[in-house]
Amino acid sequence: MTSEYIPSHQRTCVEHSLTLRGFRVLAGFCMLAVMLSCLSGCNYLIFFGYLIGGPPQLEPVFEKETNKSFTDRGVRVAVVCYADNELKYQYDSIDHLVAVGVAARLKQNHVNVVNSELVRVWLEENPDWDTPDEIGAEFDATYVVYVDVSDFSLYEHDSRHLFRGRTEAIVSVYEMKADGEGRRIFNYDLSSEFPRLGPRSASDVSYDSFRSEYLLRVSDEIGRMFYPYGSGDDVGSGT
């Protein structure tokens, strides 16, 4: 049995291709060796973990402090936000917008959330509501996230031509009991500022665009108290 004849010019192309492929593999190993030479100890594990599964996930502060999780089986979460009339006069429906944003971020991260529109309707029909656990009892929630906004602004201090979002709020969580009563199990002082590196000119971005961007930002800042997030998620977000 004779071997198949391969013309010399084809053999040359095949040999060249194999040589080039081998060079690329060797270059890749060399690059990896250089990177590993800069690491020591447990950094090797972090490096390989990053290669396999992406950046490490940070544990949310709520889970750290309470050993509870919004993603546990059977858990249902309601979100309600409070802002006084002065703030709502300056920024129409700011309480509802924040609540909708936070609820949306939780839902995107696999939390079973009460529909924000249902909560809004209940609040309007019950203007004399007094405590967050009333909302929890009404919607059979396991937890109620209560965001008490004391200050909110979209402008740089003493300027109507520069945008910089700011929020001061207390974020609390009430755990509901079988009898419809709730107890506060979590409290966090939120102080948000965006962009951190400097304000944006109103000539570069419209009011509506910046408001939407900042509401997404502050909603995610609150949401991260309750779901894991990547350690590098804030990279490039300061401007």
Number of distinct beta strands: 7
Helix content: 40-55%
Low-confidence stretches: 44-50
Q: Biggest sheet: strands, sense, closure?
A: 5 strands, mixed
Shape: globular
Mean pLDDT: 83
Topology overview:
Elements lengths: L7 H30 L5 H11 L3 E2 L2 H6 L10 E7 L1 H6 L3 H15 L7 H10 L6 H7 L4 E13 L6 E15 L5 E13 L5 E2 L5 H17 L5 E2 L9
Parallel strand pairs: 2-3
Antiparallel strand pairs: 1-7, 3-4, 4-5, 4-6
Helix pairs in contact: 5-8
Q: How would you sum up this structure, described in words?
A:
The protein is of the alpha+beta class and 239 residues long. It has two domains: 9-53; 58-229, ABC-type transport auxiliary lipoprotein component (Rossmann fold, 3-Layer(aba) Sandwich). Helix content is 43%, strand content 23%. The protein has eight helices and seven strands, in the order ααβαβααααββββαβ. The strands form two sheets. Strands 2, 3, 4, 5 and 6 form a five-stranded mixed sheet that branches.
